[in-house]
Design a protein that fits this description.
Blueprint: E1 14-16, E2 22-23, E3 50-59, E4 66-72, E5 84-92, E6 102-109, E7 116-123, E8 132-134, E9 138-139, E10 145-152, E11 158-165, E12 171-177, E13 188-196, E14 210-218, E15 226-228, E16 242-245, E17 251-254
Parallel strand pairs: 1-8, 2-12
Antiparallel strand pairs: 3-13, 3-15, 4-10, 4-14, 5-6, 5-13, 6-7, 7-8, 7-9, 10-11, 11-12, 14-17, 16-17
Length: 264
């Protein structure tokens, strides 16, 4: 199955834990006999592009131990196909690119439902040793207010990744040991619109045209973001994608949601 911030992963390689439970190394002792997960290591190609369509990222000079961000669930797409649309704040190790270890509370459409879901994930698409752990998904509705956090415990042993629907009070919370979460430092904070199978069919994007990440704090600081739109001017997936920062420091990821014009 497809996973956010990664590539294709065999479903046998995905561990789902009870909401709020803590996964440590000893908990997966039985899994040590099941290794070499059959991962697809190359990105999908057209017409199944998986790409960070637009993002903001920031490299910290010290390991990141806490991130908070708020946003609002956008409208549903007007057209439904085989698209998967993700929005997430996340922490990346090594590089702000797909495939590297990532902690992320994810707002997702098309992952397993044609409604919006909120689900907390750890993904390491370059590992063959049970690289994906997630908490159960919760259904959320357009207009719901979401708050999220990623926090390393004071002793440095446990990550807590939480997405909370402030409108309903439900949450998707993953607790995972530092060792199980790649055993690595996370030095990139990211705010991402990641798409699969949207390609240039812009009507598959949400019916509104932007999402805003507000009150973003990384290690109690406001990052100075690097803005990127990988799909801008890329004919395979260009939907007018853009990342911007407003005067309050909020990050806006935007797109067009109309059918792309065909020029003959």
């Amino acid at each position: 199955m497809r996973v956010p911030g990664g590539l294709l992963v065999d479903d046998s390689c995905i561990t789902e834990v009870t909401n709020g439970a803590t996964l440590i190394v000893d908990d997966v002792g039985e899994n040590r006999t099941r290794v070499n997960c059959p991962l697809q290591k190359q990105p999908l190609s057209a017409p199944q592009i998986q790409i960070y369509a637009a993002d903001a990222h920031w490299q910290s000079q010290e390991p990141i131990t806490s991130v908070t961000a708020n946003w609002e669930v956008p409208q549903l797409p007007k057209s439904i196909g085989r698209q998967v649309v993700y929005f997430w704040p996340g922490l990346k190790s090594k590089q702000p690119e797909m495939g590297y270890p990532v902690l992320q509370p994810v707002l997702q459409f098309g992952e397993s439902s044609t409604r919006w879901e909120l689900q907390s994930w750890f993904v390491d698409a370059r590992s063959f040793f049970y690289p994906v752990v997630r908490a159960p998904a919760i259904l959320v509705n357009p207009g719901d207010k979401i708050t999220s956090s990623m926090q390393l415990s004071a002793d440095g042993k446990t990550w807590t990744i939480a997405g909370i629907d402030m409108t309903t009070g439900q949450d998707s919370t993953l607790r995972i040991s530092h060792r199980r979460a790649g055993g690595c430092d996370y030095n990139y904070a990211m705010l991402v619109n990641e798409n699969i199978n949207v390609d240039s069919h812009c009507e598959l994007m949400p019916a509104n045209s932007s999402i805003t990440f507000s009150n973003v704090s990384v290690n109690s600081k406001k990052p100075e973001w690097t803005l990127r739109a990988n799909c801008a001017n890329d004919t395979r997936c260009d939907c007018g994608n853009k990342a911007s920062v407003d005067t309050k420091g909020d990050v806006i990821l935007s797109w067009k949601n109309t059918v792309a014009e065909i020029h003959i």
